[in-house]
Amino acid sequence: MVKRGLAPIADEILSKDKEKRGDIGNLQELQEESNRLAKKIGELKSKGENADEEIAKSKEVKSKIASLKDDGKKGNDVAENLVDNLLYTLPNILDDDVPEGEDESDNVEIKTWGDKKEFSFKPKEHFELGEDLGMLDFEQTAKISGARFATLKGPLAKLERALGNFMLDVHTKEFDYEEVSPPLLVRSDALVGTSQLPKFEEDLFKTTDDRYLIPTAEVSLTNMVREMILEEEDLPIRLTAQTPCFRSEAGSAGKDTKGLIRQHQFSKVEIVSIVTPEDSEKEHERLTKCAEEILQRLELHYRVMLLCSKDTGFGARKTYDLEVWMPGQVHYREISSCSNFGDFQARRMNARFRRQGEKNTISVHTLNGSGLAIGRTIVAILENYQNEDGTIEVPKALIPYMDGDTVIK
To answer: Is 195 a catalytic residue?
Structure first.
């Protein structure tokens, strides 16, 4: 917690827990006193002696017990919930090799792949290209849904579908992920399990019947092992899904308001792994390489960043970000976060497994990553594959998924 700068929260949790345990101790002492007095009153009465003093004390003790129990009924749940809620706001413990740092400027570059594309003209940003082609609409869409929504048309809509099919084919046919079509609406318990709740509720879209639209397929996929006891031979479990994702983008006012970078609704292919503790570190490297392979086949220059302590996500113990080069923006953009959560989510979901020949169960480890965010991949293709006349070359890997089309025009 010191690495994350959250020692005060940990201290508050210990203080509240100590307070709660103190109340329990007081109640036990009073009950022992009540039992002692009852025994003494019985002895005095059997001897025909006066027990008024003891009876008065007994009434006083019973009154205190009743008061404490009443407070317990009213406040014990509150106290427990207070501790639980504080615990739910406590992030995962970071891996030892996560570098200390304050923000993204302290992230560490692990490697790069490919070269930045050279242009003989000044490259445009994706929203200029899409609007000039008449295939990317923000203005009319805003009349329908408001800001941070977009409509893709014609070949650009086809490109979105092609990318999803391409990514799913690679992950299922080559990397052993099972394709899933999961629910888009989930209960609050599912979001507590994957750690979006209670801390990040403002980032979610909530329905009137206490359900939420998923911010990522990670929620639905990871919760598929919720409250389960798996056998060791069931692991690893690898799942993938393409879904729309919904985020309120709370706190991002004025940030990336143009284009497809930060939308309320976007499409993403997610990859999730459920593994044994001893396999989670190796699985993290594997999962990251699966996401990298998509970028490599699309021939997009990117870098892999190890996130520093204060830039690592709440539930993750270690995260690699894949950042793709955007020549129109002259900037790297995150296109996938690949995280190892250890047993953090599993403990919240009560997801366990039993080793062969053993009775006891232990928590599984969970991992996830974008494989990839489709909207941002479209942005990367538009900006990296643009021609001076505003047309867009189709990456070779996608031509079969575009019915042989080689150019978007």
So the answer is: no
